[in-house]
Amino acid sequence: MRDRPLLAGVLGALVIAFSAILVRLADVSPATAAFFRCAYALPVLGLLAWIEQRRHGPRARRDRALALVAGVFFAADLICWHYSIEAVGAGLATVLGNIQVVLVAVIAWLVLGERLSGRTIASIPVVFAGVVLISGLVGNGAYGEDPLLGVVYGVATAITYAGFILVLRQSGGDLRQPAGPLFDATLSAAVFSALGGIAIGDIDWAPGLESQAWLVLLALSSQVLGWLLISVSLPRLPAAITSIVLMLQPVTTVLLGAVLLSERPSAVQLSGVLVVLAGVAFATLGARERQPA
Question: Using CA atoms, how far apart are residues 206 and 42, in angstroms rounded to an integer?
C-alpha cells in the first residue's frame, strides 16, 4: 500500500463509508459515538504504533504535536457530523461533510503552496456540483427530519474535517509510521470528544450491549483499518487529489443508506452520485502517484 497510495486512499474511503451507517445502528448520542469510536480504537492503534517505534525509532516532537492538534479538529468533526446524521440521515450528512474537498484544495494552495493540476482544478467544480445535487438543496422532496439544521451541522463538519485532514498530513513526517500519528490524533479526539460531550450534556458513559457492539465494529473498521489506509495515502498524494478520492465515501454511504437504512434519495440526489463519480474518475484517471523521496 505504501507503493500504491492512490489505491490505499480509495480502499480507506470505502471502509469509512460504513461509519455513518454504524453510527445510526449504534443509536447513541453524537458525543457518545465520537468518544467510543476513538476509545475502542486506541488499544489496537497503540500496539501498532509501539511496533513502529521499535522498528524505526521515536517520531519527532513536532509531528506528535501536530497529530494531537489534528485530533482536536477530528473530535469537533465527529460531533458535528453525528448531529448532522440525526437531522438529515447517514447518506446526506456524509455528503454535506465532504464539501471539504473545496476547502482542502484551496487551503493547500494558499497555505502549503501545493500546485493544482489542470485535471484537479477542472474536477473540483464538477464534484462540488454533484455534492449539491446529492445534498437535496436542489429540487423537491429533500430527505431528512430537519434538512436546514443538517446543512448547518454539515458545513461545520466540512470545516473541521478539512482542518483534520490537512494537519494530519503535516504530522506524517516519517512515512514508515502511519499508525503513530493516527494513534496520537485518536487519543486527542477521544479526550476532546469526552470534554465536548460533558459540556453539551449528551454523553452516555455506559451504552447498552448492542450499542457497544456496533461501536466496537465502528472503531475497528473505520477508525483503525479505514484511517490507517488513508493515513498511508495522505502524505504521498497532493491534498486536492486526496480530498477528491475521499469523496467516494459519501457516494458509497448514500447507496448504503438506501439499502441498509431504507433512506430514499430523490432522483436529483441520485444524479448527483453519478456526477461525483465522474469527477472522481476524471481527477484520478491517469494521475501519477507521488512517491516519497
Answer: 18
